[in-house]
Amino acid sequence: MKSRTLKELVLAEGAMAHLFERYGIDYCCLGHETLEVACRKKGLDISIVLREMEQLRLARPYSFLHCDLWDEEFLIEYIVENHHRYCHATIPVLLEQLTILSREHNSSGASESAYPYIKPVLFLFQRAAHEIEQHMRKEEMILFPYIKSLASAKEFARRRPLAPFLTVDGPLNRMEEEHFETTQLFAKIRALLSDFTIPENASAMHAAVITGLQAFINDMHQHVHLENNLLFPKALALEEKFDKRTGLPREEPQAKVEDRKSSYDNREARTAQSNSTAAWGHNS
Ligand SMILES: [Fe+2]
Ligand SMILES: [Fe+2]
Predict the structure, then answer these.
(1) Residue 136 alpha carbon to ligand 1 centre in Å
(2) In whole angstroms, how far apart are CA 122 and each of 24, 89, 155, 188, 220?
(3) What is the pLDDT of residues 172-205, one digit of tens each?
(4) DSSP H helical ranges for the chain
(5) What is the CA(22)–ligand 2 centre distance, in A?
(6) How do the domains of the chain map onto residue ranges?
(7) Cα–Cα distance between 257 and 97 in angstroms, integer?
(8) Cα-flanking dihedrals φ and ψ of residue 159, to 5°?
(9) CA distance 153 to 248
(10) What per-residue confidence (pLDDT) applies to 68?
């Protein structure tokens, strides 16, 4: 169990995501790490984590969502209809609440000194919100339609669809980079909020902002997990099924997904590759 990767554990049992969230273990962007490595990096006693995982498994012996069985099209629909929609609806609310809270604390010297993290959290969330909106637009306008049309072309033995990039690997790398950047901003917010601890004398608005941010960030991790660890490897494997010369689907699939996993952490190479994709803008 300790040698299994975080993404394998969450894909096998979605409830593990809740446990990893509690410990601040990044299963979405660092899903390729083993449980053992992740625990070591966080200074956690792995025997305690394993015991909790077992308890969780006994308490929730099955999952309602079998996302590892979904095809690309359904997975994309789920991501857009569940996670993107949630982002579009929640970001303005959180931004407004944070702005009001920040203004309230600014108008009271005593409160401002009591909660100095509010303004930095607001700035970090504003930046993350802007990046997320741009990122989702690229996914919804370019990447996801391409993956869907690729799946359709494979199914009906048609040519690989035209795209504003040479191979889907470039955009996928770019998206993974952006996921990583956003989750780093969220990690800073979590640290500023002392792991989402609500201060004893916090107002109702203050408490709502902290619980709202925690829910949003947890949801974003699940969202990124589905893309990084499920959809993107599927898209890459799908594209590999097409002959580069004829553009038609091949009979023999190739195991490029494993290659991708092994080079997962080579951010420099991935950035250089994605930068070569002219039509793929950077959102920061
Ligand atoms: Fe997304
Ligand atoms: Fe994404």
Answers:
(1) 5
(2) 21, 18, 46, 12, 17
(3) 999 999 999 999 999 999 999 999 999 998 899 9
(4) 6-12, 16-23, 35-42, 46-59, 72-78, 85-106, 109-114, 118-138, 144-155, 169-192, 204-226, 232-239, 256-262, 267-275
(5) 22
(6) 6-59, 68-275
(7) 42
(8) -65, 155
(9) 8
(10) 87
